[in-house]
Amino acid sequence: MPTQQDPTLDLSRDDVVKTQHWHKLENGKIQCDVCPRLCKLRNGQRGLCFVRACVDDQIVLTTWGRSSGFIIDPIEKKPLNHYYPGSSVLSFGTAGCNLACKFCQNWDISKSREMDTLASLATPEMLAKAAYDADCKSIAYTYNDPVIFHEYAIDIALACKEYGVKSVAVSAGYMCEESRREFYQYIDAANIDLKGFTDKFYWKVCGGHLQSVLETLEYLKHETNVWFEITTLLIPGQNDSEKELHEECEWIVEHLGRDVPIHFTAFHPDYKMLDIPQTPASILTTARDIALSKGIYYVYVGNVHDVAADSTYCHQCGELLIQRDWYELGLWKMAPGGTCAKCGTPCAGVFDDQPGSWGRKRVRMLF
Q1: Would you state the pLDDT for residue 121?
Q2: Residues ≥6 apart with Cβ < 8 Å to 315
Q3: pLDDT of 276-302, one tens digit each?
Q4: What three-state secondary structure class fits 198?
Q5: Which residues contact 154 (CB under 8 A, 6 or more apart)?
Q6: Domains of the chain, first to last
Q7: Given this model, what pLDDT does residue 116 score?
């Protein structure tokens, strides 16, 4: 549902830009068409995401050029294990979100309704140059979902191309068809948060619906060259039943194939789910075993220390290809071209001939 009237909205502010994905309704309201919420707004109202609003009978983005902070991360933290392993990525976000996950672990950013959260000026050119100057292989739109700052993310991606910097979207994939097609023209890699595998969970816990996310995954696989991986945060008693895990993995194999990496990560109590305990490591192990039994080649666990389950193996001969200790790379047995050094089988992903050396460092940047 839209928020109340916001009299501060106007088109003269530098962080307010016009958008394209909307249309007028017969009742005088304006419908935002970026995501399946399809918020229907009158002038002065904001959508549930908080950052898209109706001004002068059109939908505008109210956070263009403003960020909630910048950190240089290892790419494995996104998590992306098969996209330039060991490289660094400049991570940033804005504010707001188009889902309402009760377990949100970035809730101070994604649920923010305070513009002071966006204290940092960050034009696309500034961000692209900062990533280039810091020798970052890529820039990640993360912390909150880039779907809602669609236009800003595209402008940054275009600026990054001028510097040879790749664009990474960390997203829940909750998008409409037209905005999806436009957005992913400019994205090189993505991690899609598949939050569960029942519509009941999506609706009751996240305030959304599963089908739109599945459509995004199928679109990425079959209609783009975007490298993507999947993350499922397992919450005890909510989305971690073996039945659901079997169904999720079977769907992935049937609709996406065996070579899309999946990360099962541990929940910790946060936001509105403080009464649920942290995910036991045994649940992650069970999920990984199920995925491997279904024939998925690359299955990882996250938010726990498990070197064996975080490492990459050749799906053909079982050779250890990339060893990971948290975000630190160890043994590397990938031949040039991203193949197994032992048997020559290609490993799905995007690889340099040598691993990056960023390690587990996190460096906060100031503009």
Answers
A1: 82
A2: 258, 259, 297, 298, 345, 347
A3: 999 999 999 999 999 999 999 999 999
A4: coil
A5: 182, 183, 186
A6: 17-61 (no CATH), 66-302+348-365 (3.20.20.70)
A7: 46
